[in-house]
Amino acid sequence: MSTNIWVWIAALLTLSVYSFLYKDNPIYRFAEYLFIGTSVGYSIGFLYWNAFIPRIVRPVQAGDYIVLIPTFIGLLFFARFTRKWTWLVRYPIAISLGIGAGISIPLTIQAGIFRQLQATMVGDFTISNIIMVVGVICTLFYFFFSLEQKGVVGGVAKTGIWYIMIAFGAIFGYTVMARIALFVSRVQFLLHDWLGIIK
């Protein structure tokens, strides 16, 4: 069994988190709140030293006062905590959503539509490529609601449903395997690093 205090702390916190498998309890809530508080504290420190200092303080010290305009807009987020000035928070939210949409929409169209179409249409004449092209066409037919899904169209749409279900199953299986891998790594930590049962 390890005598390292940090290994003990990590082991006890791991057991505290997994105590939720029995039922919700104060030990689990303590570990949950500790994790959230630590994450928030780390994020604040990280943003202070890697965003606030190099992007606001140093430019202002160098005479670049234009950065005070976005800084002021960002500070309007804190107006949410006052009743009188809470309406001011609409402006930074609107600006953030506008900039985010302006940046993400073209990138999403490029990566999610054009690249997918290119990958579907351009490729070797192989079984896997044929299966992929058929799957894309059938799935699109399923979401093509302006045609009544009967006859040939209905059959193609049903094939699209099978493709969708297979895709969801693969995603779910990957998620389950990722969680199991995480659980196995924590069990290995407890048995190897903490208790020293396995080598």
Q: What does this molecule look like?
A:
The chain has 199 residues and is mostly helical. The protein has 3 domains: 1-63, no CATH class; 73-122; 126-199. It contains 6 helices and no strands. The model has no long low-confidence stretch (mean pLDDT 92).
Task: Record the SSE blueprint.
Layout: H1 5-18, H2 26-61, H3 68-75, H4 90-121, H5 127-142, H6 151-194
Portion of residues within helices: over 70%
Structure summary, number of beta strands: 0
Specify the overall morphology: flat
User: Which sequence of SSEs, written as H and E, runs from N to C?
Assistant: HHHHHH
What would a concise description of this structure say?
By secondary structure, the protein is mostly helical. Helices cover 75% and strands 0% of the residues.
